[in-house]
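Colleagues,

For the teaching module next term, I've prepared a clean inverse folding example: a structure given as tokens, and then the sequence designed for it. I'd like students to try predicting residues themselves before seeing the answer, so please don't circulate the second half yet.
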């Protein structure tokens, strides 16, 4: 269950410095000397597929493993042949184009799985830790004690770490099949031990520590992963080229920054909640406690400081409480009579639909806002369901 406080704690937010570091880890250096995780993963998987094409027997002396890899390679080649023969139209992708597509899918599937597992470990949802610390992690050290022979097998350069990850992924697939279940054709691309080590060591950088408790991290990872493709398409368009159907997603999928999410939700759910309060004759706590007035007063002061050059234009006004953070972007506005008339009777009647869900951060932020409103409604009604929910939340998150 999502911890209702994870989104509102300032300590759990990604710092600008950590965000810049995450971008560098994913994309590499500006001068191109370091390709980052994206470039390293794609290059390593390309080399691995080419190596398996030339000679599977050189990979490992284990006969059964050789046969398994041969079978996977035959399935991959069959799929590539089917895709190529099915191509129609003016622009036809080659076998190499489809192979690069599969390698990319395998790379970002591995990356997503590792990011989510790292976040679950940082937030205490998964124990013992395996990605955190990698080959020195408590989970791997315990595994070595119970599977000594497997970890020392000469044919496994990961020393059993890859096998342990596979067991963890299979276990997580029970509850999270969309992420840890079958990846389809991408499962046929072998992942070398060097790739795992590169990802684990990159994620273990102390400068990234606060990223693993931030709800936005997965979205930023996706953004930084997709940026090179989008930039290449921009260059293509500027040169007079045309975007092909299979390129549309890379061009149009953008990560929505946190302040945009807050603004959109606070100015949709916010007025709806105030209308509900008016409908029932309640005074919303954000009004009775003077939070809206205090926020507006501080905004005026903050704008004056900006005008005087006392604070940077990009510096955000400090927020001191969870309630302030939940209403910081709300634009005070009159609540129309018809909005009051048609307001839902209860927060429990509200449903959230995000058809372009992406990494789900709209839903996570909406959950936190709705949970706070759910508790406040219980206080207005003077009933016990809010307190029971609070007790249930603590038992689930603890």
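(Answer key — instructors only)
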């Amino acid at each position: 269950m999502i911890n209702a406080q994870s989104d509102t704690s300032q300590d759990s937010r990604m710092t600008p410095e950590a965000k810049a570091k995450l971008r560098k880890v994913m994309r590499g250096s500006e001068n191109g000397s370091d390709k980052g995780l994206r470039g390293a993963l794609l290059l390593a998987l390309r080399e691995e597929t080419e190596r398996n094409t030339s000679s599977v027997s050189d990979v490992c002396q284990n006969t059964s493993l050789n046969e398994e890899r041969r079978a996977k390679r035959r399935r991959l080649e069959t799929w590539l042949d089917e895709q190529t023969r099915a191509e129609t139209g003016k622009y036809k992708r080659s076998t190499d184009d489809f192979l690069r597509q599969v390698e990319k899918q395998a790379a970002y599937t591995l990356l997503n799985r590792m990011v989510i597992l790292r976040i679950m470990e940082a937030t205490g949802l998964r124990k013992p830790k395996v990605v955190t610390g990698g080959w020195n992690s408590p989970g791997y050290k315990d595994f070595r004690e119970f599977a000594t022979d497997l970890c020392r097998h000469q044919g496994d350069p990961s020393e059993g770490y890859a096998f342990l990850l596979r067991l963890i992924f299979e276990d997580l697939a029970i509850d999270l099949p969309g992420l840890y279940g079958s990846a389809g054709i991408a499962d046929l691309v072998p992942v070398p031990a060097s790739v795992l080590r590169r990802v684990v060591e990159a994620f273990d950088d102390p400068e990234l520590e606060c990223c693993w408790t931030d709800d936005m991290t997965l979205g930023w990872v996706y953004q930084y992963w997709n940026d090179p493709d989008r930039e290449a398409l921009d260059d293509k368009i500027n040169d007079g080229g045309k975007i092909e159907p299979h390129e549309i997603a890379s061009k149009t999928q953008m990560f929505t920054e946190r302040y945009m999410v807050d603004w959109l939700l606070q100015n949709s759910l916010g007025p709806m909640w105030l209308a509900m309060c008016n409908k029932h004759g309640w005074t919303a706590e954000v009004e009775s406690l003077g939070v809206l007035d205090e926020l507006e007063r501080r905004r005026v002061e903050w704008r004056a400081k900006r005008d005087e050059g006392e604070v940077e234009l990009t510096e955000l006004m400090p927020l001191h409480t969870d309630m302030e953070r939940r209403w910081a972007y709300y634009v005070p506005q009159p609540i129309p009579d018809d909005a009051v008339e048609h307001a839902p009777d209860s927060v429990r009647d509200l449903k959230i639909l995000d058809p372009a869900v992406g990494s789900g951060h709209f839903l996570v932020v909406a959950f936190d806002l709705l949970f706070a409103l759910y508790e406040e409604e219980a206080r207005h009604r003077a009933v016990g369901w809010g307190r029971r929910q609070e007790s249930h939340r603590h038992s689930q998150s603890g």
